[in-house]
Amino acid sequence: MDRCIFCEIAAGRAPASIVYEDADVVAFMDIRPVNPGHLLVITREHHRNIFDCPPVLAGKLLAAAARLAGPLQRATNAAGLNLLIANERAGGQDVFHIHLHMLPRHVGDGFGFRLPPSHPERPPRAELDEMAAAIRKEITEEKSP
Ligand SMILES: [Zn+2]
Fold first, then answer.
1. Residue 68 Cα, ligand 1 centroid: separation in angstroms?
2. Does residue 1 have a pLDDT over 80?
């Protein structure tokens, strides 16, 4: 089995520029930053991504990000900040240990989300309601034993 680089960092066995750590999460500098100050926040426990991470633990990634947002903004003089978790290859995930990106943003920095050509169209309400119902049904089924 291949070793997981983020587990190695969490255990202190691989080098990283640590910004913050507690019992549940570790935050460190991305080695290929999109912008200066680009941080990753990971769980100490190995979970592949949002699909297998316990919700309470996933919440701790966001709690740490909220705590780090101000310090990161002040240290980088960022005008904005994006938080992003990429899940699976189709979602842009490259390291398969859940990580939340903290991306300091500046006007005109060249980074951004590319929207599909169909994006300007507003789907009819019935279509939104149908999708909402399909998702609600899955929530209900997930709760039952
Ligand atoms: Zn891992």
1. 22
2. no
Burial 26-58 (b: 16+ CB within 10 A, else e): bbbebeeebbebbbbbbbbeebebbeebeeeeb
Q: Which one from 99, 101, 106, 119 is the annotated catalytic residue?
A: 99
Q: Catalytic site residue 106?
A: no
Segment 128-135 mean pLDDT:
97
CA 58, 59, 60 angle in degrees (round to 5)?
A: 90
Which is the CATH superfamily of the domain at 5-116?
HIT-like (3.30.428.10)
